[in-house]
Amino acid sequence: xxxxxxxxxxxxxxxxxxxxxxxxxxxxxxxxxxxxxxxxxxxxxxxxxxxxxxxxxxxxxxxxxxxxxxxxxxxxxxxxxxxxxxxxxxxxxxxxxxxxxxxxxxxxxxxxxxxxxxxxxxxxxxxxxxxxxxxxxxxxxxxxxxxxxxxxxxxxxxxxxxxxxxxxxxxxxxxxxxxxxxxxxxxxxxxxxxxxxxxxxxxxxxxxxxxxxxxxxxxxxxxxxxxxxxxxxxxxxxxxxxxxxxxxxxxxxxxxxxxxxxxxxxxxxxxxxxxxxxxxxxxxxxxxxxxxxxxxxxxxxxxxxxxxxxxxxxxxxxxxxxxxxxxxxxxxxxxxxxxxxxxxxxxxxxxxxxxxxxxxxxxxxxxxxxxxxxxxxxxx
Length: 380
Description:
Elements: H1 17-22, H2 24-28, E1 35-42, E2 45-53, H3 60-69, E3 78-84, H4 97-109, E4 114-120, E5 128-131, E6 138-140, H5 148-156, H6 164-168, H7 176-187, H8 199-216, H9 223-232, H10 236-243, H11 252-267, H12 273-286, H13 290-303, H14 308-318, H15 327-331, E7 360-361, H16 363-366
Parallel strand pairs: 2-7, 3-4
Antiparallel strand pairs: 1-2, 1-3, 4-5, 5-6
């Protein structure tokens, strides 16, 4: 029997280690390699999931404490610990046993019980796996593509990428030449392209038109359209209305908005790209994809290192704060009543805004080179 999970997360059988290991690409968004993964368990299923790169020996203790500390704000009922990578010697314990012990000790200090302490050479069909606490526990992994989690992902249209780099590549410019042209156009502008009296309404029309083109499958924006979109997102009223489209998570409106923000990250130059990347990060965070959210927020801060909202959201992600604590940012974000931009309107009061939302905070996202920084030494 699979354990129920909150809306938008794959069903995972928490009792069967091999099935849990095979489901990791669908929990994280990509296939983890040379990684440490901590899976928090809640009464309603999977909770906070953290991934970090395997540390150097001198960094193990600090990384163990940093990862365990993520569960201090919202303690789970238990945690499963997984270490991925390395080869097991015949008759010996799984590799990385010392690091597993330090993680176990760090969690124990917080009073967090461990459900499983697992190792896998890789997350692929036939890869060997085992338990650190029971030499007789282990075997070979099933095909991750044949799991219940994979069936769920296919039904929901969710893609599990082959690796972190493949996921991060989604944020790369589609055409560096087009981005360069738009940089030149924006640098020549001394003010927004609309009269002050109608600025907000005309900017809202620009966003609405972008959604209409997206529905028609019209392809990437022209240079003129991209410049207008970049200008529209600089307005606080427009940015706030766009934040409001992130909830309720997993709705058609939220998915369509996320697609548009991703397109704009690929099409806009710095520093203007920071607005779209922040919206993308917030929307991904609200639907529980902390790995992609962290990448998007890093992208925003690369474009504009002083972007206040991107910095605040990155701090929230670093600290492991549950997304439901940020629902108010979206629900109160549209005082001008612009939310929807021509999409089917949603009554947020009737929507289940209190439904549990959980977050997957990716691997090198929290400790190994994404949200937190490089592993040598860990930034804690």
